[in-house]
Every structure is written in structure tokens, then in C-alpha cells.
Fold this protein.
Amino acid sequence: MRQKGIVIAIDGPAGVGKSTVGKLVASRVGYRFVSTGKMYRALAWKALEAGLSLEDDGRLVELARALRWDFPKGAGPEADVSLDGRVLALELSEERVSRASSAIAKLAGVRLFMKEMQRQAGLDGGVVMEGRDIGSNVFPDAELKIYLDASPEARARRRVGQLKEQGLPADYAEILDFIVKRDAQDSGRKNNPLKKADDAHYLDSTAISREEVVETIVGLFAAAAK
Ligand code: C5P
């Protein structure tokens, strides 16, 4: 067993609720929550600021290595991401950052840098880590692996609901199209594509609530952490 508990890996496509579910699970079991998507987003944001090509793996890795990465404690179980002392928040959910993060996530050097940082963050356990390749690549030795899925339509409907709740404009067809494209990019890439690890539990949340998903994972945790 690791020092602080087990590693719970949650992988799955964009917009499936990995962060919401992961944070709830982390709160329930008293673990930290790490969003690896945020790390890719942070580097993508910085690359856009610096005007770097999103295809230049070498320059992007140089940029990533030159930055000071910190993960200060946020309000809930999730740590914030801070680059050179600047805490990044809302800027990471901009659509241009979503697109750019998916683009740089294709690159082998960038992925290796992220993997090292993510392994450091989770090695001692006591962590819920979400992403695309946590169970298959970053922590193939995770004690509990979840692959969370939902149909693209269900994910688009939820996203529309969230945006409307925030009083923001939301176009279902546009959002569905964006989700389908990002799925194709994340699953179709050569380096560590989105895929279910052989030993991951598959949970389809299309027809069940977030609460049920959380209950199921907490149940699996109780068995895995014994
Ligand atoms: O999950 P999120 O949408 O925040 O992730 C942003 C992008 O980062 C994804 O589209 C994906 O391409 C990439 N990513 C990844 N591997 C991870 C986490 C995120 O390739 N473990």
C-alpha cells in the first residue's frame, strides 16, 4: 500500500463529468483530487500567450520545463494550477484553450513531461486523478480504475444545461459537434489515446445520475482499499 492510500484513476471522454464525480468521490473518501486535463490546459494557455506553435513538441517541452508549476490548495479537494506564481482559473475553460490543449496532447514529449509530473503528484496515493490515460499509461498500477462513459448526445445535453444555468448562450448542435470532434481527436491520436484500461471498471452514466455514479465508485473504493 502507498503512504497515503490508493490511487483512483478516472478516465473517459470530454464532458462526461469526470471532474464533478471525481471531486465528490475525493470529498467522500478524504482524498485529494487532481485534474490532469487542467495541466494540459495550463500549458496550452501559456503556449497561446507566448505565441508558440502548437505543433512544436520540442519548444513546448522547453516551455513546460522552464515554468514553475505549483498546485496550491484550492477551496475543495481540488488543487489549483499555478504557473510562475499565477493561479489559472477561468481562462482554462475558454474554448480556444480546450482546442489548444487537445492539440498539444497529441505530442509525445509533452505527454512524457505530463506523465512525470502526474506520477509525482500521485505516487504516495490518497488521490483521485482524472484524465484520458491515467489507468492505461500514467498509473497502470492504480489500485482502482474507472472508465466513465456517456453518449455524446447525453454529454451535449448536460453541457447545454450547465451553460444555461450560468445564464450563458448554448447551442446544442454546436456543442455536440465540438464533443464529437474532440472525442475523435482524443481517441484517434497515436500517443496514449483515450482508451479503457483492460482492468478498468466501465461505468456508463448515460442513464444514471451523478449521485449513483459516485455511490458506485465509493463502493468499489471500499473493496479496493481493504
Ligand atoms: O479533460 P479536459 O477537457 O480538461 O482535457 C483537456 C484536453 O487535454 C483533452 O481534450 C485531452 O486531449 C487532453 N488530455 C489528455 N490526457 C489527459 C488529460 C487531458 O490527453 N490525461
User: Anything to note?
Assistant: Residues 172-188 form the longest helix (17 residues).
